[in-house]
Task: inverse folding
């Protein structure tokens, strides 16, 4: 939920208290969400392990999970639940943050974030060059995959195929393992 109409900067967000909330700013608008529930965290764990087990041996790139800042301008800082940057773009990763759109951004929906994840963040990710944006809905047991300029998502309920590099065999993710994680 938007906190106020004041225009916030990345510096403002970084000065926020370490109080267990997640602070993000999109085009100067501050969003504050509470710490995620354990089911949410379990889904992040399982999905991160699956992606990393596939990507690391192939040298495909870097995988991070929240809280990792993605800076997309002086008034836009977001923290996707999971993000991936291809090896060929590793230069956008600094000691502190990722300074350009990741190749893959993933958000696990929570009651407090669903509207932002499906609205403001989806538009942001589509317009800033995120190649794939996954919205994981644990309640509906589906994953929406958004790509730049797509008018609607591709919806996956049973399995999802990820191919960050066309020269390697794709990863097939059995989604029940993510949805049922505890």
Result:
């Amino acid at each position: 939920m938007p906190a106020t109409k004041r225009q916030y900067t990345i510096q403002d967000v970084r000065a926020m208290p370490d109080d267990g909330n997640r602070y993000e700013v999109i085009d100067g608008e501050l969003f504050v969400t509470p710490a995620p529930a354990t089911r949410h965290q379990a889904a992040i764990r399982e999905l991160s392990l699956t992606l990393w087990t596939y990507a690391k041996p192939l040298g495909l790139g870097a995988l991070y999970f929240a809280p990792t800042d993605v800076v997309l301008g002086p008034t836009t800082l977001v923290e996707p639940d999971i993000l991936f940057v291809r090896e060929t773009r590793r230069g956008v990763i600094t000691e502190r943050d990722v300074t350009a759109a990741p190749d893959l951004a993933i958000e696990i929906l929570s009651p407090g974030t669903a509207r932002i994840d499906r609205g403001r963040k989806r538009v942001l990710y589509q317009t800033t060059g995120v190649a794939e944006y996954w919205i994981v809905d644990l309640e509906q047991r589906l994953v929406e995959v958004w790509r730049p300029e797509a008018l609607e998502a591709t919806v996956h309920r049973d399995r999802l195929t990820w191919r960050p590099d066309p020269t390697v065999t794709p990863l097939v993710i059995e989604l029940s393992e993510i949805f049922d994680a505890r």
